[in-house]
Amino acid sequence: MAKPVYFISDLHLGATYLDSPLDYEKRVVNWLRSIENDVSELYLLGDILDYWYEYHDVVPRGFVRFFGQIASMADRGVKITWFIGNHDIWIFDYLPRELGVEVVDGSRVVEILGSRFFLAHGDALGKLPLGFRMMRSIFRNKFCQFLFSAVHPRWTVPFAHRWSSHSRNYTAEKPVFAGPDKEPFVAFAEDYQRRHASQPVDYFVLGHRHIMLDYKLDAHGRLIVLGDWIHHFSYGKWDGKNFVLAQISDKMNVKI
After folding, report:
1. Could you read off the pLDDT of 155-182 as tens digits, one per residue?
2. Which residue has the higher pLDDT, 160 or 227?
């Protein structure tokens, strides 16, 4: 019997608004260690790091325990796929090469243990505010990235963390399932199913919104929004028969 597949998103490791970023990182690593013998694939669905920028010859400090655990799992044969979010958008070649993970920029439809999955962070799905679309376009522009890399990190890192602290509450709104303000992920998934009626998706698994949601779509399939590790400490688990959206115990001990 195949080992299950796990999904997590929105860890925001390194965020300055965390009470203790180091203890928080240890908690994440402790959970990863608890599943490392019971996982075939691990999907990291974006905003795993609160901020990351790879310069040509240097990378940001921190995340040593987390990176080491991910590399160890990959070395042991766990397939790890990291979807870029809107906070860890500037992953280039260092992390894939050093950690042994596959990095995906955008969305992907894949078959996992016999079912069809649509996977993405989610920041590019549905109707997006104009300001967010403009910011997203600037951050992904190669020339703008070049200009950003020319600024000393003593300026860029504090700016990035201030921006993160300012924007983190945007995605925490409660979902609405009808009317003009209908949850954008629900609207997107239902529209996708209509446009791909011959090959519908069984599970849409997304992050970004910082809410836990397991919603049965009207026509076919389920929408899973994974929550986050700031408030929910949540993850998804798929064993080929059941998809479970769960939370770790608030009393999990840090053993590192």
Report:
1. 666 556 666 565 555 455 666 655 556 7
2. 227
In Å, what is the CA distance from 158 to each residue of 84, 101, 161, 169, 208?
A: 21, 28, 5, 19, 22
**Cα angle 116-122-126, degrees, rounded to a multiple of 5:** 100
SS3 of residue 204 by DSSP? strand
- The angle subtended at Cα 141 by Cα 136 and Cα 143, nearest 5°, is 145
Given a contact cutoff of 8 angstroms between Cβ atoms, the answer to whether 52 and 99 are in contact is no
Instruction: List, in sequence order, the alpha helices (H) in 76-174.
Output: 94-99, 130-140, 142-149, 153-167
Taking CA atoms, 138 is separated from 85, 142, 167, in Å, by 15, 9, 16
Alpha-helical runs (H) found in the chain: 21-35, 64-75, 94-99, 130-140, 142-149, 153-167, 184-195
3-state secondary structure at position 17? coil
Q: Which two tokens stand for residue 97?
A: 């090469």
